[in-house]
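User: Could you check the structure of this?
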Amino acid sequence: MLKQAMSGVLTEKEVEDLYGAFDQIGEIIILRIPESLLPKKKIIGKVLLEKVKTAKSVFYQSSPVEGDYRIRQLELVAGEDNTQTEYKEHGCRFQVDVEKTFFSPRLSTERQRIANLVNDGEIVINMFGGIGMFSIVAAKKKKCHVYNIDINPFATNLCSENILLNKLKGTVESIEGDATQVIEQRLSSKADRVLMLLPERSDEFLDSAIKACKDDGIIHYYCHTHADKKSDVPAMASKHFLSTTKVKSTILGSKIVRPVGPRFYQAVVDVSVSK
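Assistant: Sure, the predicted C-alpha cells are below.
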C-alpha cells in the first residue's frame, strides 16, 4: 500500500527503494524509511496520513529496538504528536505507548497460537511480558493464571490498565522487575509453561526459565537464526536450544515466527523439560 500511495509523489526509482510495509497500531503508523529517502520523510508521512483514514499520527522509526526496555526512537513526520493509542486484537483491548514500551502487531498470529496451547488451570510465567499482550490473549481464552513480568515500569503500568480493560476467563498478574530475580525470589518451580519473548537474549535467561518450570514444564524459547535456506530454520533453532542446556528436553515443535531481515528469522522452539 505504501508504494501505491507514493506513486506520482516520488520518482519510480524512489518508490522502488521504499520499504513496502508499515505498521499501523491503532491510530498510529510507524514507518521505516531508507536513508536515501530521509529528506522526503515528511511528504511521505503527509501523503500516507491522507490515504489511511483511521490514522492520526505517522512516526518515522529512527533507531532499532534496543536496551533493557526494548524501545525505539520515533520521530513525528505527520499528524498528532501522541505515542499512546488503543489497539484491538483477538477480542481484547490494549492501551499501547509505541515509544515507551515494546510492541509488535506482527506477533498477532503467534499470540493466538500460544493462547490455543495453554490449558485451563495452567500457571504461565511470561518472563518479558511487556504491556501484557500474550498474557491477556491467553487469559481471555483459558482459565489460567499468568505472571506477566517486565523490567520496564511503563510496560507494567500499562499491563495493569489492560488487565482491567478486558473481561478474562483467567487472571493476569503484572510484576515489575528483572525476570531472573523475580523467579528466584518467588516463582521457582511454579510454572506449567514459560514464555521467553526476548529472542536476542534468550540464552542468557534459559537457566531462569528452567528454574521457573515445574518438574515437567514447557518452555517456548524464542531465538534469532541466520539461514541461507528458510526451510532450515526450525531444525537449526531446535539444535541450538539442545546445545544450550544439559537439562533433559523433548522438542515438541519449532517454527519460524517471522522474518526480521535478509536470511535472518525469529523462530520459536516449544520444549518439554524434565528437571
